[in-house]
């Protein structure tokens, strides 16, 4: 399963881990995804949504 938000499409980003002696190692930053139940067109569906989309109200949680 892809580590990608189903609303905005946010996925992992890459960069370097920099040590004190400035040795560079590749690393990844993963998005904060939550598996939530969401109302989509009147039906309840389980989606993986990033917390930024949840906080912005881009999805409506099912109760």
Automatic annotation (TrEMBL):
The keyword Ribonucleoprotein applies. The keyword Cell division does not apply. Keywords: Ribonucleoprotein, Ribosomal protein. It holds the Pfam family Ribosomal_L28. InterPro entries: Bacterial_rp_bL28 (IPR050096), Ribosomal_bL28 (IPR026569), Ribosomal_bL28/bL31-like_sf (IPR034704), Ribosomal_bL28_bact-type (IPR001383), Ribosomal_bL28_sf (IPR037147). One of its GO terms (cellular component) is ribosome. It comes from the Bacteria. Belongs to the bacterial ribosomal protein bL28 family. HAMAP family: Ribosomal_bL28. This is Large ribosomal subunit protein bL28.
